[in-house]
Write a structure and sequence with these properties.
Elements (H helix, E strand, L loop, with lengths): L8 E5 L3 H9 L4 E5 L14 H13 L3 E6 L11 H11 L3 E4 L2 H10 L4 E4 L8 H9 L4 E3 L6 H9 L6 E9 L10 H6 L18 E2 L7 E2 L15 E3 L4 H6 L4 E4 L6 H20 L8 H6 L8 E2 L21 E11 L2 E6 L3 E2 L3 E5 L6 E9 L8 E2 L5 E6 L8 E5 L6
Parallel strand pairs: 1-2, 1-11, 2-3, 3-4, 4-5, 5-6, 6-7, 7-11, 10-12
Antiparallel strand pairs: 7-10, 8-9, 13-14, 13-20, 14-19, 15-18, 16-17, 16-20, 17-19
Helix pairs in contact: 1-2, 1-9, 2-3, 3-4
Length: 412
């Protein structure tokens, strides 16, 4: 194990500019995002040329690095578009490319030599020889395959140059296929997962049919909802910061470029505080309960620790849905003492106890004592999405806070 005093980077997803702002506000050291081409999440809004420049300016102004995904496996006809994309990204000010293809890596060295090269988890890096070979080819960082244990990571780290950075996923969705290189979507829908367009058929429910009994299906599970044969759990390593740091991981990566700004806010905040608390007292570190609780306040599948501690059952076979214990009900746009100006996102009522995530990142509860609509009229509830309201509370709600409410039904 390595020096426990080396502080790891918190690397957060940014599917759009709102997510980028949330990541920066809640403590990310770096963000990863995509342009309109060559990124592995076409479902995200992503960044066109103008917004990429704006993203780099905003992030750098706040001391945050920008990593651009260029990690699809491009086909022959796409290669001619790469030099222009790489050159523009360098001019925009990106700090690093995340690349899966060695040919793209060579193009990046030629057309964007000032940008650092990070090799994607898509490359399936599982041993020190591959990591060191990529380092000798110009990579400053490798993003390890998610199938590695902490013991394997520590061994790889010990056998590679100290200048080579090690990045690993610590939170979010897991792919059923090795390092995300999957063909199920292509077979079933024609949408190529290796070029950013996965339809996620691994999340669908399946039944067994008998060929001589047309129209009859036979469930191959214990419920009547279908069998979710490939539906992997979500990764959550928030309780294992010491082990991650001691294994020599340079960057703790949060999955989620297709997820909301709320998700980005909460998970970035949780890992930011967890790492900071650990660095204050590595030997006596105990994770504060509220940090673990924050990871339960976002929509997620059942959590596990992936392969970090060896093989662990990774599938949820009885359902394909999310667990959702809280709803976002409003964002605080401005605040003056016990009065907050808010924008509503989900319905809530006067008298409700709301869970507040302030810019400081330390959550607290407050009670909604009074609600006024835009006409200054007192109302009993906030039923209209994006409605502007004035809210009086028993505790001041800081500007920029997210307001949440516990749900009765925890299934999304």
């Amino acid at each position: 194990m390595l020096n426990i005093n080396i502080k790891p980077e918190i690397l957060s997803p940014a599917g759009d500019f709102e997510c980028l702002q949330s990541a920066v506000k809640f403590g990310a050291d770096a963000v990863y995002l995509a342009g309109k081409q060559f990124g592995m999440r076409t479902a995200s809004a992503n960044f066109d040329n103008d917004s990429l420049v704006k993203a780099c300016e905003f992030a750098h102004k706040n001391g945050v690095r920008v990593h651009v995904t260029c990690n699809t496996l491009p086909r022959e006809y796409e290669l001619s578009q790469l030099p222009g994309f790489l050159q523009f990204a360098q001019e925009a000010g990106v700090d690093a490319f995340i690349i899966a293809d060695v040919g793209v890596m060579e193009l990046a060295k030629k057309h964007a030599p000032k940008v650092a090269l990070h090799v994607s988890t898509q490359a399936g890096i599982t041993n020190h020889l591959t990591a060191e070979t990529l380092y000798n080819m110009g990579a400053s960082r490798v993003v390890l395959a998610r199938e590695l244990s902490l013991e394997e990571i520590a061994s790889l780290r010990a056998k590679t140059p100290s200048e080579l950075e090690i990045e690993a996923f610590v939170h979010g969705a897991m792919c059923v296929s090795f390092s995300g290189r999957c063909l199920i979507s292509s077979y079933m829908t024609g949408r190529d997962a290796n070029r950013g367009d996965c339809a996620q058929p691994c999340r669908w429910k399946y039944h067994l049919f008998e060929q001589n009994r047309e129209g009859q299906f036979f469930p191959v599970e214990e419920t009547d909802q279908g069998t979710f044969l490939y539906n992997s759990r979500d990764l959550c390593m928030i309780e294992h910061i010491p082990e991650l740091v001691k294994a020599g991981i340079t960057s703790l990566k949060i999955e989620g470029r297709a997820k909301s700004s709320y998700y980005t806010s909460v998970v970035t905040n949780a890992y930011r505080h967890a790492v900071d608390e650990y660095m204050k007292n590595p030997e006596g570190f105990v994770l504060p309960d509220w940090i673990k609780e924050e990871t339960e306040k976002i929509s997620h599948r059942e959590y596990n620790t992936g392969f970090y501690f060896g093989t662990e059952p990774g599938q949820v076979t009885d359902n394909g849905g999310y667990i959702r214990r809280y709803d976002v009900v409003a964002f605080c746009e401005d605040s003056d003492g016990d009065t907050a100006e808010i924008t509503q996102r989900n319905k809530f009522y006067r008298g409700d106890t709301l869970d507040v995530l302030p810019p400081s990142g330390i959550p607290f509860n407050t009670v909604c004592l009074k609600l006024l609509n835009e006409n200054g009229e007192e109302v009993e509830s906030a039923p209209h999405a994006m409605e502007k309201l004035s809210m009086t509370t028993d505790k001041p709600v800081p500007k920029g806070s997210v307001l949440r409410k516990a749900r009765e039904n925890t299934k999304a």
